[in-house]
TrEMBL record:
Enzymatic class: lyase
A Pfam family that the UniProt record links to this protein: tRNA_int_endo
Superkingdom classification of source: Eukaryota
Name of this chain's protein: tRNA-intron lyase
Gene Ontology terms describing biological process: tRNA splicing, via endonucleolytic cleavage and ligation
Start and end residues of each tRNA intron endonuclease catalytic domain: 60-137
Similarity field: Belongs to the tRNA-intron endonuclease family.
Gene Ontology MF, one: nucleic acid binding
UniProt GO cellular component terms: cytoplasm; nucleus
Catalytic activity, EC: 4.6.1.16
Catalytic activity: pretRNA = a 3'-half-tRNA molecule with a 5'-OH end + a 5'-half-tRNA molecule with a 2',3'-cyclic phosphate end + an intron with a 2',3'-cyclic phosphate and a 5'-hydroxyl terminus
């Protein structure tokens, strides 16, 4: 949704005022902390109490960085609603023409997952004839100024690990 709004400009989103932060007035009647609707949507999607979904495995900014990364490499990126616990499905062609080849788990480079957790994901993905990509995302250690958070994700570092249970017989 955020990519359609900000990246492509083809979506218009109305956010009820109850979700906006209260504006603080300073001397002279000027507004402080005035945010654009795009900023409000980013904050809403990034909040841990996101009312639109279950708590994500990875924070929104990491998932958005992974989304931009795979889109920039020509993949069609879709949310993985059918395979629980993974973030994205990657399609080489339109989903109506070909099945997804990969599933992606997004995680922070500073966090780790247990071998049991990864093995469980690998078992599920191999049972549906897909390969598992673990995308470890690291934010820059030094951030430059305030800036727009959706612009900062372009500077994140992404390291991929491809896992598969299939064995090729030669």
């Amino acid at each position: 949704m955020f990519f359609l709004l900000h990246g492509l400009g083809v979506l218009r989103v109305r956010i009820p005022k109850k979700f906006f932060e209260k504006t603080v007035l300073i001397e002279g009647g000027e507004e402080k902390n005035r945010k654009t609707p795009t900023h409000h949507l980013w904050d809403l999607l990034s909040s841990p109490s996101n009312p639109s979904s279950e708590p994500p495995l990875a924070p929104f900014h990491l998932r958005y960085a992974a989304y931009l990364y795979y889109r920039s490499r020509g993949w069609i990126v879709r949310p993985s609603l059918t395979l629980g616990g993974v973030d994205f499905l990657l399609y080489a062609e339109s989903p109506c023409l070909r099945h997804a080849a990969y599933v992606v788990i997004v995680m922070s480079a500073s966090n780790t997952r247990s071998a049991r957790d990864i093995a469980a994901h690998l078992r599920v993905t191999s049972s549906v004839a897909k390969r598992l990509i673990i995308a470890e995302i690291a934010a820059p250690t030094v951030e430059k100024g305030e800036g727009r958070p959706w612009e900062k994700v372009k500077n994140y570092t992404i390291e991929e690990t491809l896992l598969s249970r299939t064995t090729d017989l030669v």
